[in-house]
């Protein structure tokens, strides 16, 4: 099963990044950790180390958003979903040891890849939010996709850097969601 | 809407020596990037000796790069101020300010070279925890303008929010939004930003 092998390599490479960092992780390390040969790793990642490191970042970002989606699955309505998403994602970013370590010691490769992935990440969050916006009244002239795109961007911006907001404080998050994030809906 | 030109008007006399070195450094960075630019290159470009440049910037290349960054930020905000000073309504302030900021980022050849080829030189300064510094700088600059239309606490909030909107659409362009086009920015501001600033009541919780 090609997908299983690929997943196994990415998982092993992530463990290597956690241990050695992005710059020091090699194809050999990942192969050893996955219990595979170097040649097998190269078959799946012909770009070698650089490709492997880039794809590990995208892979972990994908897992992060899958955990986020699971965390908000039970939310009763759109404001509650956004509140839960902000609180959960903020806590998950703060407590993500590998992410925090890389941000402090070798942010360049990570941030470069997240920038390349930004389109896809905005798209992921947007698609996730879209059904919620299709179900509510929208401001004149704005389609659900445009509104979902905007809200996805602002959610991601807040997760990356909360700025003046304390995202561990439920009351503040409630205020943030209702008066800022969902402001476009307040005039409908 | 009137737009201040992106290029600065030429100074009356010859630029001060330090200014001349900073401008020379910018041209070198736009041509070769940050990593490959040496103090020798900058000295040659400015028409000074290496020793003269070192005397002006004892911190060497690092000191020079910091001076360049500080000068470019000063110019960025000075250019933005011209537009904001002329805004007669809150909408004009937001549309003019965001459009001008986006145009200045896109029209900055040295910055664009770094964003295309040396992301690592820029991103760590403006991402995750360090984005707080961007919010602080933008907030300190924009608050007095926003306070013409709202209370100080709301102005601080609005300044950060507008910075978020601007950074997101500039860093990761959306298909249907052009941040350098005033009418496109106006649609964004009217639909998404202004409703949050004229906040009559919270969103109905039964949404």
Description:
The complex is a heterodimer of chains A (188) and B (207). Chain A is mostly helical and 188 residues long. Chain A folds into 2 domains: 1-59, Arc Repressor Mutant, subunit A (Orthogonal Bundle), CATH 1.10.10; 72-188, no CATH class. Chain A has helices spanning 2-20, 27-34, 38-44, 48-71, 78-94, 97-105, 107-134, 144-160, 170-181. Chain B has 207 residues and is an all-alpha fold. Chain B folds into 2 domains: 16-68, Orthogonal Bundle (Arc Repressor Mutant, subunit A), CATH 1.10.10.60; 86-197, no CATH class. In chain B, helix 2 (39-46) crosses helix 3 (50-56).
Broad structural category of chain A: mainly alpha
Shape of chain A: elongated
Estimate what percentage of residues of chain A fall within beta strands.
under 5%
Distance between the termini of chain B: 37 Å
* Number of domains as seen in the coordinates of chain A: 2
Largest interface: A-B, 41 and 38 residues
In one word, what is the shape of chain B?
elongated
Q: Quick one: how many beta strands of chain A?
A: 0
Percent helix range of chain A: over 70%
Which assembly state applies to the chains in this document? Answer: heterodimer
Structural class of chain B: mainly alpha
Number of helical runs of chain A?
Answer: 9
Order of helices and strands of chain A: HHHHHHHHH
Poorly predicted tracts of residues of chain B: 1-9, 200-207
